[in-house]
Predict the structure.
Amino acid sequence: ETNREFANECGVDFHGPSTSVVDHFSHALDAQEGTHTSIVAKFTPESSRIAQSGAAPVIYRGVGHSVNADNPLLCTVLTGSSTSYSHNPAKPVTGAPEATGTDTRLVSAVQARNNARVVFAGSPELFSNAFFNAPVTTSDGKTFEKSGNEAFATALSQWTFKERGVLRAVNFTHG
């Protein structure tokens, strides 16, 4: 609950604990168990300053979140595809899901005015060795020996810990 409150203060609202992001059209065939909860994540255009899309897709399995669009310090890094939604996969969808399409956020980042950086992700598996080394066959038939999760996690951690994406002014003078 404390983590959810902290996320809310930063403009991130995680969906209910029993929900998962589901996608029946853009899922990883090798990493899922029939519920289509192991999805292929999409990079957003604004995420290029944090992490870039590689050749292999990033696999995500976990809780989605929504963001406060009025927060200028918040950047969405990964979203679901246009066919994804956030719902409890064990129950039939009878009402509106918590989020649909690319409004289903998977990974978001905040850089505060004091340059502190925070990343929010609802999937510990996104950063696991199992997902780093998982072979992926996407629902459109493309096969990859290894997912793009390791490269994504490396780029994300480098940005978070200010190993990249920092402007430095060195040895400047006024003349």
Summary: Helices lie at 2-9, 129-132, 149-160.
